[in-house]
Amino acid sequence: MINQTQSRHASNAHGIGRIERLPVGLKIAGLRAPNPEGQSMAEQCQAALDEGLKALQASGYSLSDVTRVVYLIADAASFPTCAPILRHVFAESEPSVTLMWVKKLAVPAAKIEFEFCVSEETNAA
To answer: Cβ of 25: how many Cβ atoms within 10 Å?
Structure first.
Protein backbone atom coordinates (compact mmCIF):
# COMPACT_ATOMS: atom_id res chain seq x y z
CA MET A 1 0.00 0.00 0.00
CA ILE A 2 1.30 3.45 -0.90
CA ASN A 3 1.54 5.97 1.93
CA GLN A 4 -0.78 8.81 0.89
CA THR A 5 -0.13 11.09 3.87
CA GLN A 6 0.55 14.67 2.87
CA SER A 7 1.65 17.31 5.37
CA ARG A 8 1.73 21.08 5.17
CA HIS A 9 1.61 23.97 7.61
CA ALA A 10 -1.81 25.38 8.38
CA SER A 11 -2.57 28.48 6.35
CA ASN A 12 -3.14 30.99 9.10
CA ALA A 13 -1.48 34.28 9.92
CA HIS A 14 0.70 32.85 12.66
CA GLY A 15 1.70 29.58 10.98
CA ILE A 16 0.45 27.61 13.99
CA GLY A 17 -0.53 24.03 13.38
CA ARG A 18 0.43 21.30 10.98
CA ILE A 19 -2.22 19.91 8.69
CA GLU A 20 -1.84 16.33 7.52
CA ARG A 21 -4.17 14.88 4.88
CA LEU A 22 -4.59 11.20 5.62
CA PRO A 23 -6.25 8.52 3.50
CA VAL A 24 -9.13 8.47 6.01
CA GLY A 25 -9.32 12.17 6.91
CA LEU A 26 -7.40 15.07 8.31
CA LYS A 27 -5.17 15.69 11.32
CA ILE A 28 -4.19 19.13 12.60
CA ALA A 29 -1.54 19.16 15.31
CA GLY A 30 0.26 21.90 17.21
CA LEU A 31 -2.73 24.21 17.71
CA ARG A 32 -2.04 26.76 20.44
CA ALA A 33 -2.54 30.41 21.27
CA PRO A 34 -0.43 32.58 18.94
CA ASN A 35 0.62 34.90 21.80
CA PRO A 36 0.30 32.96 25.06
CA GLU A 37 2.41 35.33 27.19
CA GLY A 38 0.33 36.62 30.09
CA GLN A 39 -2.83 34.75 29.05
CA SER A 40 -4.78 32.50 31.39
CA MET A 41 -5.30 28.91 30.36
CA ALA A 42 -8.92 29.68 29.45
CA GLU A 43 -7.77 32.55 27.19
CA GLN A 44 -5.17 30.29 25.59
CA CYS A 45 -7.79 27.59 25.13
CA GLN A 46 -10.11 29.98 23.27
CA ALA A 47 -7.25 31.35 21.14
CA ALA A 48 -6.10 27.81 20.24
CA LEU A 49 -9.66 26.86 19.27
CA ASP A 50 -9.81 29.97 17.08
CA GLU A 51 -6.58 28.89 15.35
CA GLY A 52 -8.01 25.40 14.92
CA LEU A 53 -11.19 26.78 13.37
CA LYS A 54 -9.13 28.79 10.85
CA ALA A 55 -7.12 25.69 9.91
CA LEU A 56 -10.28 23.58 9.60
CA GLN A 57 -12.04 26.18 7.45
CA ALA A 58 -9.00 26.38 5.16
CA SER A 59 -9.55 22.66 4.50
CA GLY A 60 -13.33 22.90 4.11
CA TYR A 61 -14.34 21.78 7.61
CA SER A 62 -15.72 23.25 10.83
CA LEU A 63 -15.35 22.42 14.51
CA SER A 64 -18.47 20.25 14.29
CA ASP A 65 -16.58 17.94 11.89
CA VAL A 66 -13.90 17.12 14.49
CA THR A 67 -14.19 13.47 15.53
CA ARG A 68 -11.21 13.33 17.92
CA VAL A 69 -9.46 15.93 20.06
CA VAL A 70 -6.19 15.56 21.93
CA TYR A 71 -5.58 18.09 24.71
CA LEU A 72 -1.97 18.53 25.77
CA ILE A 73 -1.85 20.50 29.00
CA ALA A 74 1.09 21.81 31.00
CA ASP A 75 -1.02 23.13 33.89
CA ALA A 76 -3.46 20.55 35.23
CA ALA A 77 -4.69 22.80 38.04
CA SER A 78 -5.96 25.42 35.56
CA PHE A 79 -7.48 22.99 33.05
CA PRO A 80 -10.97 23.05 34.65
CA THR A 81 -11.24 26.73 33.59
CA CYS A 82 -11.40 25.46 29.99
CA ALA A 83 -14.38 23.18 30.62
CA PRO A 84 -17.13 25.73 29.87
CA ILE A 85 -15.43 26.72 26.60
CA LEU A 86 -14.87 23.12 25.49
CA ARG A 87 -18.39 22.07 26.50
CA HIS A 88 -19.83 24.91 24.42
CA VAL A 89 -17.67 24.24 21.35
CA PHE A 90 -18.04 20.45 21.29
CA ALA A 91 -21.50 20.05 22.91
CA GLU A 92 -23.25 18.73 19.82
CA SER A 93 -20.45 16.91 18.00
CA GLU A 94 -19.06 15.15 21.11
CA PRO A 95 -15.70 14.04 19.66
CA SER A 96 -13.64 11.40 21.42
CA VAL A 97 -11.07 13.00 23.72
CA THR A 98 -7.57 12.22 24.91
CA LEU A 99 -6.01 14.32 27.66
CA MET A 100 -2.23 14.33 28.04
CA TRP A 101 -0.52 16.10 30.91
CA VAL A 102 3.01 17.12 29.89
CA LYS A 103 5.80 18.84 31.82
CA LYS A 104 6.02 21.64 29.27
CA LEU A 105 4.99 22.46 25.71
CA ALA A 106 7.24 23.61 22.86
CA VAL A 107 6.42 27.26 23.62
CA PRO A 108 7.32 27.87 27.28
CA ALA A 109 4.40 30.23 28.01
CA ALA A 110 1.86 27.84 26.44
CA LYS A 111 -0.38 25.98 28.88
CA ILE A 112 -2.58 24.11 26.40
CA GLU A 113 -2.26 22.75 22.88
CA PHE A 114 -4.73 20.86 20.68
CA GLU A 115 -4.69 18.21 18.00
CA PHE A 116 -7.85 17.79 15.90
CA CYS A 117 -8.78 14.78 13.78
CA VAL A 118 -11.53 14.66 11.17
CA SER A 119 -12.63 11.29 9.84
CA GLU A 120 -13.76 11.36 6.20
CA GLU A 121 -15.90 8.30 6.88
CA THR A 122 -18.06 10.38 9.26
CA ASN A 123 -18.56 13.09 6.62
CA ALA A 124 -19.28 10.72 3.74
CA ALA A 125 -23.02 10.54 4.50
So the answer is: 18
